[in-house]
Amino acid sequence: MDTKSIMIVGVGGQGSLLASRIIGNVLLAQGYDVKVSEVHGMSQRGGSVVTYVKYGDKVYSPVIEKGEADIIISFEALEAARWLPFLKKGGHIVTSTQQIDPMPVIQGAAKYPEDIIGKLKSQGVSVLSADALDIALKAGSAKASNVVLMGLVSTKMDFDEKSWLDALEQCVPSKFLELNKKAFALGREAA
């Protein structure tokens, strides 16, 4: 199979590293060669975090260039727009509608852009969006918004639900497993 590429983008502290572990686990269970690379930037200060996941029969590098990503999973709406140049033609953006103000907005030097999702769709981009934070709260914890996004993205990938649930069992501590399974199910429903 041709190599496929997934970018996971967000702001530090949103759980993108767990998300990459879950996806990596699903892909490894399917027998793919998988490479993952994490770029942290100013993640501890609320800056961008990017994780590259590549999979296929043989993968030599995890790096994803502009126009190569089959899927961009975004934990925050502005991050989806920021990384749009990396999406390949016919690719999908799976994003939370959550908005986290970047430093220029916090300082009053800029305004948060309006209707980012609508603007992406008006450019012909395939966008699957949901308020992952609100859904995670319904599951029992705001911290599960990353797993809500895994539920959403699972509907855009050709792997059965059991593979995803098995990956959750492998990656999530047992005391948080039921909560995360609920968040995953709610994410799939929202899709």
Based on the model shown, name its key terms.
single chain; about 190 residues; alpha/beta; Pyruvate-ferredoxin Oxidoreductase, domain 3; 6-stranded mixed sheet; 8 helices; globular
Describe the secondary structure blueprint for this structure:
Layout: E1 4-11, H1 16-29, E2 33-39, E3 48-56, E4 69-74, H2 77-82, E5 87-96, H3 103-106, H4 116-122, E6 126-130, H5 132-139, H6 145-154, H7 161-171, H8 174-190
Parallel strand pairs: 1-4, 4-5, 5-6
Antiparallel strand pairs: 1-3, 2-3
CATH architecture: 3-Layer(aba) Sandwich
- Number of domain modules: 1
Spatial order of the strands in the main sheet? 2-3-1-4-5-6
Overall helicity? 40-55%
CATH top level? Alpha Beta
Q: In DSSP terms, counting alpha (H) and pi (I) runs of 4 or more, how many helices?
A: 8
List segments where confidence is low: pLDDT < 50 over at least 5 consecutive residues. Answer: none
Structural class: alpha/beta
Tally of DSSP β-strands: 6
| Cα end-to-end separation | 27 Å
Superfamily (CATH H level) name: Pyruvate-ferredoxin oxidoreductase, PFOR, domain III
Architecture overview:
The protein has 191 residues and is an alpha/beta fold. The chain has one domain (4-190): Pyruvate-ferredoxin Oxidoreductase, domain 3 (3-Layer(aba) Sandwich). The protein has helices at 16-29, 77-82, 103-106, 116-122, 132-139, 145-154, 161-171, 174-190; strands at residues 4-11, 33-39, 48-56, 69-74, 87-96, 126-130. α2 links the parallel β4 (69-74) and β5. α1 runs parallel beside α6 and α6 (145-154) packs across α8. The longest helix is centred in the C-terminal third of the chain and has 17 residues, at 174-190. The chain is globular and about 45 Å long. The model has no long low-confidence stretch (mean pLDDT 91).
